[in-house]
Amino acid sequence: MAIAHHPARAAAERTATPTPALAPGRDGTIDAIRTACLLVVVVLHALMVGIENSHGSLVTSVAMDGQPWFAPLTWALQVMPLFFIAGGFASLSQWRQMQSRGEHWTTYVVARTRRLVIPAVAMIAISATGIAIARAAGLSDELAAEAGHRIAQPLWFLAVYIGASALVPAMARLHRLAPKRTVAALSAAIVAVDLTRIVTGIDGIGYANLLFVWLFAQQLGFFARSWRSDLHRASRRTPAVTLVAALTAMVTLMATGLWSTDLIANLNPPTILLALLAVVHLCALRLAKPTLDRAFAHPAVSRLVRIANPRAMTVYLWHMPLIMALIGVLWAAEIPMPEPHSAAWWATRVPWLVSIALVLIPATAVLQRFERIATALPAPKPVASHAALASVIDAAAGVTLVLLAGVANPLAATASVCMLLVSIALGFTGRSVSDDGCPESLGRPA
């Protein structure tokens, strides 16, 4: 049946700015959670920056380090397990869509890798150049190194996320074939690594859980992808009981004294507690999702999420470089910098956060162009499996290099940028998958 359009209304519709639509297969609640988690991390990092003027010298510190009142707050502020759950949900949705179109697993891996790497190249190159200019202008080597390490610290997440994203096709297949056994195997690996770390006293062993803990959280996100939209009263019992059991297990482990009560401290290296926290987050999400779905379906809220979500990674990548630049401007302008935890320091926390927001918001509008470059590139063609794997390894290694050495190290920053550019280039070596020898099973719907 034809629908008559009022001329004035039609003209208004043609001139109005269209609201970006939610892409097929996306979940508004999950997008909101991913964005909120990254913004919580940004606010946390901003509050943890301690700066003061000590006898004419700029002194930096981690403001919350060693504060006994901070540990209980980390139970709410430690949101990385929830982010990886939401990331697993969204990644599986994207991969299944690509499978339904008959696309190859290397196409997914290359697309995800370059989507994360291109903005990182820009951040590392610009930050390293900025620090070099500041050094030439008189910044001490000590402060330059401190700024370089602060800028690089959040990149641990990017290195892990690159690897976890690249493993989505393989982990999705394991989830399809043996979901419970996959989660059980990851759980066993987490426990084995953590106990070995404790028994041997070698903290380095614990970094193996950078793989196992976050893949575990990703698997929980795969389970979340299969939830029904409704949640009847009878089905609320299982997530509620599981949530309480996971919290009880966390408290019991902390009571032994072998694990810190600070859940931020349990991030480096990741411990059993973060895996249990992921279970808590999953159960809480299961209970709250029907309500959240209704809330985020509201047009105004939905539009806000669609505006914020594409900018969240840009904000995450650039918040520390911009915070360091802001500190430099405040220092040069001789703005008073009160001692951390003093009354004056607490009184200036809201203005401090507002100042960061006033820098981040306009800067993000410009810096988001680097993400747009990644999304505007033509869809990658299938590549040889060794090229796809080399691209991922090169990307993760390049990010890890600057994470360990700091952005202020010119050799490390240059090498990192070169490695990341090679990673991007490997994604353009398209070839016929018939010559590839890749497992065809990964191209079938999970």
Automatic annotation (TrEMBL):
<dbReference type="GO" id="GO:0016747">
    <property type="term" value="F:acyltransferase activity, transferring groups other than amino-acyl groups"/>
</dbReference>
<feature type="transmembrane region" description="Helical">
    <location>
        <begin position="116"/>
        <end position="139"/>
    </location>
</feature>
<feature type="transmembrane region" description="Helical">
    <location>
        <begin position="411"/>
        <end position="429"/>
    </location>
</feature>
<feature type="transmembrane region" description="Helical">
    <location>
        <begin position="71"/>
        <end position="95"/>
    </location>
</feature>
<feature type="transmembrane region" description="Helical">
    <location>
        <begin position="205"/>
        <end position="227"/>
    </location>
</feature>
<dbReference type="InterPro" id="IPR002656">
    <property type="entry name" value="Acyl_transf_3_dom"/>
</dbReference>
<feature type="transmembrane region" description="Helical">
    <location>
        <begin position="345"/>
        <end position="367"/>
    </location>
</feature>
<feature type="domain" description="Acyltransferase 3">
    <location>
        <begin position="30"/>
        <end position="363"/>
    </location>
</feature>
<keyword id="KW-0812">Transmembrane</keyword>
<protein>
    <submittedName>
        <fullName>Putative membrane protein</fullName>
    </submittedName>
</protein>
<keyword id="KW-0472">Membrane</keyword>
<feature type="transmembrane region" description="Helical">
    <location>
        <begin position="151"/>
        <end position="170"/>
    </location>
</feature>
<feature type="transmembrane region" description="Helical">
    <location>
        <begin position="32"/>
        <end position="51"/>
    </location>
</feature>
<feature type="transmembrane region" description="Helical">
    <location>
        <begin position="239"/>
        <end position="259"/>
    </location>
</feature>
<keyword id="KW-1133">Transmembrane helix</keyword>
<feature type="transmembrane region" description="Helical">
    <location>
        <begin position="182"/>
        <end position="199"/>
    </location>
</feature>
<feature type="region of interest" description="Disordered">
    <location>
        <begin position="1"/>
        <end position="24"/>
    </location>
</feature>
<feature type="transmembrane region" description="Helical">
    <location>
        <begin position="313"/>
        <end position="333"/>
    </location>
</feature>
<feature type="transmembrane region" description="Helical">
    <location>
        <begin position="387"/>
        <end position="405"/>
    </location>
</feature>
<feature type="transmembrane region" description="Helical">
    <location>
        <begin position="271"/>
        <end position="288"/>
    </location>
</feature>
<dbReference type="Pfam" id="PF01757">
    <property type="entry name" value="Acyl_transf_3"/>
</dbReference>
